[in-house]
Design brief:
The protein is α+β, with helices and mostly antiparallel strands. It has 10 helices and 13 strands. About 35% of the residues lie in helices and about 25% in strands. It binds adenosine-5'-diphosphate (ADP) and magnesium ion (MG).
Length: about 325
């Protein structure tokens, strides 16, 4: 290990772990954990590559927030309570102002969610950030993709399509009349998604089926219907939109671009299924957390996902979401 690499880890990433289930964190060859014995562990990892998962112009702080958020969103989708993170960082150069901003935002996020950074790796190359997140699940209160039943309702948290629209705002001059506040809201949805951790933990008392929407609703709901061997019907008129998204479209075209909303990705909201008798309880939880949850359709036996407009007519969409290859 070169001295400067050591300095970087020391200066920016070595923190005293804030959790008593961490025995040994950064500084040794591996971290040591003493996980509580009455839980199972959920483990996930996601890589963000500059120019692929975030625009090259994204700030260091936004990259740090997003790298953590997308991983905590995966944990939320399993109803896992976040506990520990590792960080593998690939940097083109040692840029201290960038590192200071990145690490500050990173540590703010870990504090906010009560997770400990317990190790990582630092290498040189094209900018890439890999975060691994680990957390606790209650064995009988886990959310999975394979637990949807015919007759369940389909819900999503938050609003859809904001991040995809933000990306279009950055990439084109198609939209240029949007108000500053709307633009900033949409960009924050792209750069700093909010993982629905608290809601997911409470939701798991009422259902056992969820996924997080990262590649677009059609693709991700498709993972539920495939794993659960069922189909789904989406009522397009029920899809939840932010007022910022509606404003931007109102200023440019007449209605939201549903193709982009359904397949654009980067929403980091939860899509879950629910028996109708639990609707009220879940609505209450969402209200307490000041989180919008919306019923957007139902689970069917058809084996496919069908979208219908307000008249009940089927509407087809091409491309089922973001694909890397
Ligand atoms: P080794 O060569 O033994 O793998 P490293 O030089 O990769 O050791 O890392 C030294 C220590 O610093 C390890 O405890 C590792 O987990 C930690 N570490 C390295 N890079 C990071 C990083 N970016 N963030 C957090 N911890 C890191
Ligand atoms: Mg190493």
């Amino acid at each position: 290990m070169s001295a400067s690499e050591f300095d970087i880890i020391q200066r920016y990433f070595t923190v005293t772990p804030s959790r008593d289930d961490v025995v040994l964190a950064i500084g040794d060859d591996a971290a040591l954990l003493a996980p509580r014995s009455d839980r199972q562990l959920a483990i996930t990892v996601d890589t963000l590559i500059a120019g692929v998962h975030f625009p090259e112009t994204t700030s260091a702080a936004d990259i740090a927030c997003k790298a953590i958020a997308v991983n905590l969103s995966d944990l939320a989708a399993m109803a896992a309570e976040p506990a520990w993170l590792t960080l593998a960082l690939t940097l083109p150069t040692i840029d201290e102002p960038w590192l200071a901003e990145f690490s500050q935002a990173f540590h703010n996020m870990t504090q906010h969610y009560g997770v400990a950074l317990i190790g990582g790796d630092t290498t040189r190359g094209a900018l890439g950030i890999t975060v691994q997140a680990m957390g606790y699940v209650r064995q009988d209160k886990v959310l999975r993709r394979d637990a949807a039943d015919v007759g369940d309702d389909v819900y999503v948290t938050g609003t859809l399509g904001d991040a995809a629209l933000a990306l279009r705002l950055l990439q084109s001059d198609l939209f240029d009349g949007e108000a500053k506040a709307d633009r900033e809201f949409l960009l924050s949805r792209l750069n700093r998604p909010t993982p629905r951790v608290e809601f997911a933990l409470a939701l798991a008392d009422y259902t056992s089926c969820a996924i997080d929407v990262s590649d677009g609703l059609l693709a991700d709901l498709g993972h539920i219907t495939t794993a659960s061997d069922c189909g789904a019907e989406i009522e397009l008129s029920c899809l939840p939109f932010s007022s910022a998204l509606l404003n931007v479209y109102a200023n440019n075209t007449d209605s939201p671009d549903l193709q982009s909303v359904l397949t654009g990705g980067d929403d980091y909201e939860l899509c879950f299924t629910l028996k109708p008798e639990h609707a009220e309880a879940v609505k209450q939880i969402a209200q307490t957390l000041d989180l919008r949850v919306t019923r957007i359709g139902s689970i069917t036996a058809s084996g496919e996902i069908v979208c219908r407009d307000q008249q009940g007519d089927m509407v087809g969409f091409s491309n089922r979401g973001y694909q890397h290859f």
